[in-house]
Amino acid sequence: MIPLIDFQNVSVKRGDGLVLDGVTLTIAQGEHVAILGPNGSGKSTLVKVISRDLYPLLKPEPWSLRILGSENWDLFDLRNQLGLVSNDWMQMCTRDFSSSEIVLSGFFGSVGVWPHHQVTPEMERTAREVMDLLEISHLAGRPTDELSSGEARRILIARALVHNPRALVFDEPSTSLDLHATRELRGILRKLAGRGISIVMVTHHLPDIIPEMRRVVLIRGGRVYCDGPKERVLEAGNLSALFGTPVEVLKRGGYYHVI
After folding, report:
1. CB 67 within 8 A of CB 95
2. How does pLDDT run across 201-223, given as a tens digit for each residue?
3. Whole-angstrom Cα distance, residue 86 to residue 153?
4. Element (H or E) spanning 227, and its range?
5. Which fold has domain 1-68+167-259?
């Protein structure tokens, strides 16, 4: 099967610094993968390259970046295939739109529904079904600037789901969430993973890694430091080197923690 994401020797420069340095990473369709690293390791840059908000550095040695087998994508088409949920998109939840409008705006790649948009009955039906799936139908009429961080995060997931994408890409999904909202988010992620949607998660929090994610990629200094089965990668030596501080690893209920 054609890989979902295929990076071969990809480098990215931001300003004068090399943020990704010769990254080679392949993720299969249907695979659930966590990309773990400290702040400043290049994780969020990796997400922006996948979403085409950033582009690789042109260099003489061979390199390639393919998503679903293609190097060239219309941005609108790409975002129908890969649903992105990031903290950057949380800014939309300060606008004066209802939750259902934010979900529907996923069909148009916009923030909210505008007068020139033509919302069809099929779009409305799909939006309702997705909101039912995520258990947020009761929020449909609520202005998004009145939502809690956890509610807003689920609205953004619904927005990303309306196209039935091949994969969802999460950038630091538990940031700003309290304990209750974090647990709810993990439950939603597990439900989505069970429906066969690939989940690619970028995080620096080990407890974000749900049991369905069997592969973990460690990023350090813009490079892939370690890549493999979760049980082998998430061990004290690897994580101590990754975060630059001694840690112990505790596994409980299918989740990993550092102490």
Report:
1. no
2. 999 999 999 999 999 999 999 99
3. 9
4. strand 223-229
5. Rossmann fold (3.40.50)
The pair of three-digit structure tokens given for residue 238, joined into one six-digit string: 């690897």
**In the chain, what are the domain boundaries?**
1-68+167-259, 89-165
Cβ–Cβ < 8 Å for 22, 11? yes
pTM score, whole prediction: 0.92
Q: Please, where are the H alpha helices in the chain? A: 43-50, 75-81, 99-104, 121-133, 149-161, 179-194, 230-233, 236-243
* Contacts with 129 (C-beta within 8 Å, 6 or more apart), sequence order: none
Between CA 44 and CA 178 the distance in angstroms is 22
Residues in the chain: 259
183's tokens: 């647990």
Rounded to whole angstroms, the Cα distance separating 147 from 113 reads: 18
- Asked if residue 185 has pLDDT above 80, the reply is yes
